[in-house]
Amino acid sequence: MVIEKRLEAILGARLRDKKRIENAISTQDRLRKKSKDWNGAAEISKWRESR
Fold this sequence. Notes:
- The protein is built from two helices and no strands.
- By secondary structure, it is mainly α.
- Helix content is 88%, strand content 0%.
């Protein structure tokens, strides 16, 4: 009985973690598509030079 509850808790946690990871990956992919040719290093250089 106790072992069954522990297994259910562990498996449930794994499924939740997997779902969270899948959501994070899809969010990153969606943002990556929107940013296209954006260059973060170039933007930082512009900001630093303008100071």
